Fold:
Amino acid sequence: MTATVAAPARWPLHRPPADYVLGHVRAVLPDRVLDDARIVVRDGLIAEVGPHPGGRAADVDGGGRIALPGLVDVHSDGLERERVPRPAAEVPWRFALLSFEGKLRAAGITTVFHGAAFENGGSPAHDRSVAKALALCREVAARGDGLVDHRVLHRLDVRCAEGLAALRALLDGVDGTVDGRAVVSYEDHTPGQGQYVDRSYYERYVMGTQGLDAEQARRHVDEITATRDARLGVRTEALAWLGERARAGAVHLFGHDPASAGEIDALAASGGAVAEFPTTVEAAAAARARGMPVVMGAPNALRGGSHSGNASARELVGRGLVTALASDYLPSGLLAAAFLLATEGVLALPAAVRLVTAGGAEAVGLTDRGTLEPGRRADLVLAEAGQPWPLVRAVLRAEVP
Structure:
């Protein structure tokens, strides 16, 4: 039985009204699941969450389905993949954004930070450029608050001088901010450190993506490493500038792929706020010891391990070292990972749901969403649990005046 709407003719096609009542749902609260619950929405905000009184009608009958907050995805690279569904088969940016928006809603994601990669070249699987990053930023800013709240995660390759110059210019008037602060993730994908501390994983990666044999892959990675080693000065300049901006409160800074406690110390010293995809238990533990949010990839949690031989998100979650999951490249993986963690007993359902809702919101400093509590945005998702995979049945995103 699907959710039913009492008076569909009075509802906008794209959003529910500012005032309505959702009844007969299993509401996932911060600390428990409330069966046969009622959620009252007023002016686009949650006004009340409690047991559904007997004999009281609702505008929307949830039919016993699970109600949870809209998912908050703080790192999504899916838009760049949507724009190039096959190599050399590019589609227009606006079409890609609208198409991808449909996938986000189908996954229960109501707030998304699209990764804009300020780099030239990138990995073999990503034909990235500074020009494409700027185009993505323009399209996301133009769409803004559509059927999904679209924002930007500015990903800076700290060894790319062109990326640094472009990001500096952009942040003078950037859109997609949180309380006036641009969300920036600094990263260094030079083989031999960070994500690919064991460069053999990168060599196997380029063998698969470029059709190289082992010797060709080794020489190719040698060339990449030598080229990037010559750009250490750019790295120093980029980190110094980001630190200044973060300490001044102009940038909400993520550190991408920290591998050690020392790197967490450096991130904190530069005003960094979030450890994103730490590659070791040591780095994740050091971040949490400082009270720093830790974001891991949902695909890693789904698969049970990292594709590049780094820390397992599932293990880190089990150790209590993860505060949020991000879709990375798989929007549908976000809710699926949360329900899998609950099904396997790694976390109770409320804690697992928190990883993909309130945890993400807190990581980027959004205080108005992420939980089913009075005063929060009424971004709501109705889902079926499945065994073990959940199915999103409806997304009711708030119309906040």
Q: What stands out?
A: Residues 1-13 have pLDDT under 50 and may be disordered. Residues 71-197+229-368 form a domain with the TIM Barrel fold (CATH 3.20.20.140).
